[in-house]
Specification:
The protein is 85% helix and 0% strand. The chain is built from eleven helices and no strands. The protein is mostly helical and 264 residues long. The longest helix is centred in the first third of the chain and has 46 residues.
Length: 264
């Protein structure tokens, strides 16, 4: 029954989005009679039809963007884990690191991307660096919050068992903070894709962002623009879903807890 309700809600959401898109396109073309309506917002069925012509090319470009985003995501997640653990190990380190972590997010990504590209002089490296930059913050904050949320009773119990620091993290801290960690990953994964797409627009020769900027300013086939937009969105959604599945696999006790609650 729960699966049926979930499938129904997804179907209704998709149906609503399709109707909203088609309605907006109709209003622009017939209601407002905009002469540029077909280029600004074509009907969704026209966009989907263009996948047959441009789909293979766009898939290759999306793969380039996604591969760089994935590398940056892994680096950013690793940095986030390291920073969170360092802050948990020492209150002094936390006071030293946290202001820099927070200050890093005050830098606009649109201003940082060209600077990184100018420094490293390599587009692929820039994609990875910016994706890592977008990833590390939500991972750091979420994991640090999870580690700080461990109750005093649990900590006292580990001390009573004479558990060393290694056992403390392996048997208590890591399992307890995994839901927080995956929450950070689910925020970071689509952001990493967005960062990679953004860097694609900086004098790139490939990537889905390159297609977007090329078609937007008239250097390429206009029919590629909206398919490229949909593919960019789909990449972010797929990354989110992948992390969701990974969480489902890695935290079985959370799944069992939800099943028990559902039965009650």
């Amino acid at each position: 029954m729960r699966g049926y309700k979930k499938a129904l809600s997804v179907f209704l959401w998709i149906l609503g989005a399709v109707l909203l898109w088609e309605g907006a396109a109709w209003l622009l073309q017939n209601g407002l009679q905009d002469p540029m309506a077909e280029k600004k917002l074509p009907y969704l069925h026209q966009v989907l039809a263009s996948f047959g012509e441009y789909g293979p090319e766009l898939s290759v470009q999306a793969g380039i963007t996604l591969s760089r985003a994935a590398l940056g995501f892994l680096w950013g997640a690793g940095i986030g884990i390291l920073l969170a653990l360092l802050m948990d190990l020492s209150g002094i380190l936390e006071k030293m690191i946290m202001p820099y972590v927070l200050a890093s997010q005050m830098i606009p990504i649109l201003g940082l991307a060209p600077v990184v590209f100018g420094l490293v002089k390599d587009l692929d490296t820039s994609r990875i660096v910016i994706a890592a930059y977008m990833t590390f913050f939500p991972v750091t904050i979420s994991l640090a919050r999870g580690l700080k949320s461990i109750g005093a009773e649990e900590k006292l119990l580990m001390k009573a068992c004479a558990a060393g620091r290694k056992n403390y993290y392996l048997k208590l801290a890591v399992p307890f903070s995994l839901p927080y960690f995956f929450s950070g990953l689910k925020i970071a994964a689509p952001m990493a894709v967005t960062a990679s797409v953004l860097v694609d627009t900086l004098s790139a020769k490939d990537g889905i962002g390159y297609i977007l900027i090329l078609t937007l300013y008239g250097g390429g086939t206009v029919g590629k623009f909206w398919p490229a937009v949909l593919i960019s969105s789909a990449l972010g959604v797929l990354c989110f879903m992948f992390i969701n599945v990974l969480q489902y696999i890695c935290i079985p006790w959370q799944r069992k807890k939800k099943e028990v609650i559902a039965r009650e």
